[in-house]
Design a protein that fits this description.
Elements lengths: L5 E3 L10 E9 L9 E2 L5 E11 L2 E15 L6 E15 L14 E3 L1 H11 L35 H13 L2 H10 L1
Antiparallel strand pairs: 1-7, 2-4, 3-5, 4-5, 5-6
This protein binds zinc ion (ZN).
The site of zinc ion has 7 residues, from loops.
């Protein structure tokens, strides 16, 4: 067995209570994810893995830190964001449990486990900033220019709660309506 996500467990196999920790970095040999954003081929994942020997097999848990990239789902600006993925799974000894993962030849291969967790953690609707206004439907120009720190005008504290609500909607219409009211 080999591969960038394969770890040896020979020294803790069938020794419940034993535990090993591994920290390592993997450079992805292919893209992970098919959506608007993905983990790019050639990008790095920093893994922090704990292997615990239990009666049924090896309990694998840990985190993977990487970066996804792609486009804002509203305005198509290229974005890159850090992502931290958590995973945990039992790798059972062969023939002992019905599981998706098994200890094989005194090794565990974490690739499928980490990959599935990473792809699931990618946002379905990635945005360049929470209040991105997207593109002008007539001109196709990007409506948002600066980052979320901008404030066009001082906001009356009494309106700030409402402002937060409308920011969550992220629509230009709700902001315009609020301005007329205030
Ligand atoms: Zn955007």
């Amino acid at each position: 067995m080999n591969g960038p996500f394969v770890l040896p467990v020979r020294d803790i196999v069938r020794r419940p209570g034993e535990m090993r920790e591994h920290e390592f970095t993997v450079t992805l040999s292919e893209q992970w994810g098919e959506g608007i954003v993905s983990l790019a081929e050639g990008s790095e994942l920093d893994l922090d893995v704990r292997l615990e020997s239990v009666h049924e097999g090896i309990l694998v848990s840990g985190t993977a830190d990487g970066e996804y990239s792609g486009e804002c789902g509203r305005c198509l600006t290229p974005i890159t964001r850090p992502v931290e993925v958590e995973f945990q799974e039992l790798f059972a000894y062969p023939g002992e449990e019905e599981t998706d993962f098994e200890v094989q030849d005194d090794h565990v291969d974490l690739e499928t486990l980490v990959r599935d967790a990473a792809v699931l953690s990618l946002p379905f609707q990635p945005v360049c900033q929470p209040d991105c206004l997207g593109l002008d439907p007539r001109t196709g120009e990007k409506l948002t220019v600066s980052t979320g720190t901008e404030q066009e005008a001082p906001i009356d504290p009494r309106w700030s709660a409402l402002q937060q609500i409308t920011d969550q909607d992220g629509t230009a219409e709700s902001r315009a309506a609020e301005k007329e009211e205030s």
